[in-house]
From TrEMBL, chains A, B:
Position of the signal peptide: none
SUPFAM superfamilies for this protein: Winged helix' DNA-binding domain (SSF46785)
GO molecular function, one term: DNA-binding transcription factor activity
Record's keyword terms, sorted: DNA-binding, Transcription, Transcription regulation
Lineage, uppermost ranks: Bacteria, Bacillati, Bacillota, Bacilli, Bacillales
Domain HTH arsR-type, residue spans: 15-108
Protein name: ArsR family transcriptional regulator
Top-level lineage group: Bacteria
InterPro entries to which the protein is assigned, alphabetical: ArsR-like_HTH (IPR011991), HTH_ArsR_DNA-bd_dom (IPR001845), Metal_resp_trans_reg (IPR051011), WH-like_DNA-bd_sf (IPR036388), WH_DNA-bd_sf (IPR036390)
Species the sequence originates in: Oceanobacillus bengalensis
A Pfam short name: HTH_5
Length: 108, 108
DNA sequence: ATAAAATATGAACATATACTAATATATACA
DNA sequence: TGTATATATTAGTATATGTTCATATTTTAT
């Protein structure tokens, strides 16, 4: 914390704190099975919270918590229709990484 | 667990357990600042455990633990020279994702 | 205003994770 | 064999994380 500047300027081999935080948060988002399943579901179309829960056999509150996590990182967005919120993905880069890695993992 | 087959065959919207595990493990590996720093260091050349620890200001045992983690996932490999082990990266796909995401995070 | 439907939130809990100190192991060499 | 060097491992601890239950909030319709 005190030597952040030092590391950035002197030690080019290391990453600065902010980059480190953003990058690790991004990957952390993809590091949980539930979030992967949710994002994978949102790959082709939008889903309401309840539909996600039903489809993946998860509790509504679990889905809601994870969607909040993903939304904080701007990996998903939503639109409202009455009382229903339709979530969809909102980061092409991350979705591409996820897709690639899933394919990479499948035919191995 | 009991309905794994069902999900795989009936509900194409969900991923199978094994894929889910591999994918989440992979991203989990990249979801920790220390491991990111280590992999980032190994981007261009190999490093011994102690050199990694010195360069990143980490304890030897911390580095060793994380290297074991990364090696279990085959993200790094090593060669021995006397008592020294030189570690290097071992997964181009993952290193590319890391690089892209770091760049993506930097100039934002 | 009240009720219903959909979603969000807070607290509690269990588990996972990362770091550390201490110690063990492995290799090289005198 | 004994010592030094480099790395790995173990156990303990603190923190982070994910899920759940219960409840709150928001929106719509009556």
């Amino acid at each position: 914390m005190e030597d952040k500047k030092e590391q950035v300027e002197i030690d080019k081999k290391d990453l600065d704190e902010e980059t480190l935080f953003v990058v690790s948060q991004t990957f952390k988002a993809l590091g949980d099975p539930t979030r992967i399943r949710i994002l994978n579901l949102l790959f082709h179309k939008e889903f309401s919270v309840n539909r996600i829960a039903e489809t993946l056999h998860l509790r509504q509150s679990t889905v809601s918590h994870q969607l909040r996590f993903l939304k904080n990182l701007r990996l998903v967005k939503y639109r409202r229709e009455g009382t229903t919120l339709y979530y969809s993905h909102d980061d092409e880069h991350v979705m591409n990484m996820l897709k690639q890695t899933i394919e990479h993992a499948c035919h191995n």
